[in-house]
Request: fold
Amino acid sequence: MTHSTFGVVMNGVTGRMGYRQHLVRSILAIRDQGGVELADGSRVVLEPILVGRDAAKLERIAAQHGLDRWTTRLDEALDDPAAGIYFDAQVTSAREAAIKAAIAAGKHIYTEKPVAESGEGALGLARAARDAGVRSGVVHDKLYLPGIRKLRRLVDSGFFGRILSVRGEFGYWVFEGDWQSTQRPSWNYRAEDGGGLVVDMFCHWNYVLENLFGRVEAVTARTATHIPQRFREDGSTYTATADDAAYGIFELTGGIIAQINSSWCVRVNRDELVEFQVDGTEGSAVAGLFGCRVQHRANTPRAVWDPDRPVAERFRDQWLDVPDNGQIDNGFKVQWEEFVRHVVDGAGHPYDFLSGARGIQLAEAGLRSSASGQRVALAELTP
Reply:
C-alpha cells in the first residue's frame, strides 16, 4: 500500500479544543491508524506542525506526543512547502488575519468557527480562497454526533412526515469562578475579546438547522447577560460584557419553526447537555449528543389534561430508542478525514467558508434582533 505524507500547520493547539479534539483525537489518531485512506486505496499520513504563542506549552505538547516540529512564528510554518493544510483553532479575534496569511501562502484552509468576527469578513475569506484556488473547510462537529446522525437518518427516511417544528435546549451552569473554578475561559464573557454565546452557538445552530431541516430565513432573538460579574483565571473580577444566554425563534424554509434556548446560566434537567425535539405529522424524536428516542404516530398515547389528578404515567417511558446500527467514530476525526480527501482526492465537502459565513450571518442577525426587538430576515449569501 502506498503512503505519502502531508504537512498540517496547526495554530492554536495549546487551547482545549485545538489540543484535545483536533490534535490528539483527530490528527494523532489518524496518524496512529496509518493515515487517511483515499479512493485508490493509498494513504496520506498527516504530519502536524504546531504553532502558538507560548513556546513552553508547545515544547511540552510536542515532547509528550513525540513531535519535533513546533514554532511560535506562523510565517515560518507557512513557508514550509511540505505543509499543504493550515488549521486554525485560535481565539476568534486572531483568526481572520492568520487565515488570510495562509491563503496568500497557497495553503488549503480548515478552521474552527466562527471563521471571522463578521459576516463580511467571512465572505471576504471565501472570495480570497476562491480566487487563490485553495479549498476551505469549517468545523461542523455537531452534525457528526451520534445523536444528530440518528436524527438525520430519521429525516432522510421520511419518518416525521411533514416536519412542523424543532425545539432545542442547550446549556449548563458555568461557574462564576469565585468558589468554584470556571469551566470556560474568561474571554468567552467579554464582547471586546470576541466572546458571547450568540457568536459561539448560533453558528452551530445554523448548520444543524440548514443541513437537517432547511435554510434559516428569519430570526427573532433575545439575548441576556444574566451573570454581570465573573472571575478571571488569576482570581480577579471583571465585568461580563458579552451575552451568556440567548432565546431564539428561527423560521426555516418550508414553514418549519425552530425554537432554541441557549444558556451558560441554566442547571441541567434533561438527559444530555443539548437536546432537540422534532415534531412531525407522522412522528416525533428527541435527539441529544449520543441518544435519540422516537414516538411514531401509531404509538402515540392519548394525552388528557386533568389538573385535578397527579400524572400516573411516565411519559418518557412511552418512547423508543433509536439503535446505533454500527460503530460511530469521533466526529472531529471523521470530518478531518473528509477534508483531507477533499483536498487530496477532490471529494465533495459542502462545509466551506460560505457555510461558515452563513453561521456568522445568523449570529449577527440574532444580535440585531435582540437590540431592536424586531424580526430580522436573512438574505441568501453568494461569494
In short: The chain has two domains: 3-138+331-350, 142-328.
